[in-house]
Amino acid sequence: MPAAASEMLVGASSDFLTRFSPFNRMEPEALGFLAERATLAFHARGSEILTPEMGQPTHFHIVQRGKVQARQLGPTSVTDYAAMTLGPGECFPIGAISAQRPSTNAYVAVEDSFVFQLPAEDFLKLMQMSPVFHVFCTQYIASLLNQSRQQLQSTFAQRAAEQQTMTTPLGQLVKKEPIFVAPDSSIRAALEKMSEMRIGCMVIADAEHKPIGILTQSDLLPRVVLPGIDLQRPIRDVMTATPHVMSASDSAYDAALEMATHGVRHLLVVDSEGRLKGVVSERDLFTLQRIGLRQVRSSIEGADDLEALQRASRDIRQLALNLIAQGIGAEQLTQFISALNDALTCRIIDLARARHELYGIDYAWLAFGSEGRHEQTLSSDQDNGIIYVCPEGADQDALKNRLLACAKEVNENLAACGFPLCKGNIMASNPELCLTLEEWKGRFGDWIREPDPQALLNATIFFDYRVLCGNERLGDQLRAWLNRTAKAYSNFLRLMASNALQVAPPLGRIRDFVVEENGTIDLKKSGARLFVDVARILALRADVASSSTVQRLRQAGTRMGMPAEEIAALIDGFHFIQLLRLRSQHLDTEHDAPGDNRINPDALNELDRRILKEAFRQARKLQLRLKLDYQL
């Protein structure tokens, strides 16, 4: 072949490869080596490209055009279950050629296809030449996830900047109705109102609600306390007249400059008619610039009313956005969200217990479902219950009624903080879910011994529990009893396994994904659930105490002898689906909004489509293990 033509082919190969990962990040020398050594082969529809019978693979393959189906060989029922389709830019057989063993899959062209072929010896050289390619081949899905996280970080950094910027109009920072007194009000009345409303300053406004003065806490000592001013005098006598006023359309940056220039900590915000809209403090501007984990946690612990807790709840959502913008992974992100939501819930419970005088009662507040698994996203409703101990000789009905009254207040306050009441009434205020330890054992035991469809559904919700606050020993005792009992009823586990296999990963035989009529995939029902349901069964079999899906997979997988790289790939797949769910949930939507967990795969970039497909393949492998274990 003439040199010019050869160079054109190599250039065309390079151009194609750089459209896909990991080739788009490979070192120029390594990419040139690959483009130079790879040859393009045609495979007609229905032809076999690679099978286990062909022995150790002689080539590494990269699909250039067309579709190639990978089939895991075995019994007919399993073969259909384990088919997957590869499209342009996807490679095979990474594991077999790296380990220099026969492939476990058969690769067949399902339409006329062109596939790059790289000789096996050149593949091994390429792994030595290119650290990027080496990481890709040894940590396939983890490598793709890292790239996706970088893209996501860039996208969300822009979004965070838009939502959390010093160009925000002051009108958007004012969150509550203005509080003020008339100039003729007594100093005592103004101070009492400051104390009652827990505010650091009092605005004085005229009959038209136009501000004419301000009195701050720092003014009290020199103007009121030390001079011994009569508290019955009108507040106009001690106020600062002509306070610093800014328009609601002015920016946070303008406010910061005004504070710095004049050395003030409070600015009065007015509308276009000059009427008071509210007060912006130095703290408000600091919060706008940076909402941190410690700050949110401190605001929760210091909250002593519902309004303060509602502000903290909004801060949690803003912090989640910031963490995504910083490139935090899905596991850490959901742990942050769960930890802060835990703190918020515990504070709400503590305040309610004090009002209902429940000190000294031995109890545990249980979180079920996603909260019980430490897997809350920004869209989760309430799922909770109570275990309690009734002291000998005490009136159990009276004690339970007191707990239920407290729980109702907690549930309502959680709803006010953005966690909707559970439509299925899975809440601690439901008498059916406020039980003693023995009553919970009886409830769980009935489901295990008589696993009808409703019992199996209950198990998927209630077995994923953890103690959120209160006596953790009660939860530990119930978990130990539950694991022992479930293992003894193999039919129960088999029926749970059958139930878990009712939803298959939405992978198509020809098309990449199977979508619903509206062109979307529900990543909660057809994504995360695939991992969650299997992990629950493995945990019961392997006597794992954790309720977290990731920890269940890690611990149960290790105890069952699963290879570490297989466990890691499963977890990476689960994490990516969780990350996509978080990306689809926006700060300006309500919890559990209809589209919160839905994505349109056609709207994803090529990298994310590829990782999502791999994540679903990992889910299919996990389900296949369950299918084989229980001969389903």
Automatic annotation (TrEMBL):
InterPro entries: CBS_dom, CBS_dom_sf, cNMP-bd_dom, cNMP-bd_dom_sf, Diverse_CBS-Domain, DUF294_put_nucleoTrafse_sb-bd, GlnD_Uridyltrans_N, NT_sf
Annotated protein name in UniProt: DUF294 nucleotidyltransferase-like domain-containing protein
CDD domains the UniProt entry points to: CAP_ED (cd00038), NT_GlnE_GlnD_like (cd05401)
Keywords of this entry: CBS domain
Entry keyword annotation includes Cytoplasm: no
Top-level taxon of the source organism: Bacteria
Domain (CBS): residue spans on this chain: 174-231, 239-296
Species for this entry: Aromatoleum evansii (Azoarcus evansii)
Pfam families the UniProt entry points to: CBS (PF00571), cNMP_binding (PF00027), DUF294 (PF03445), DUF294_C (PF10335)
Gene3D superfamilies: CBS-domain, Jelly Rolls
Domain spans labelled Cyclic nucleotide-binding: 22-127
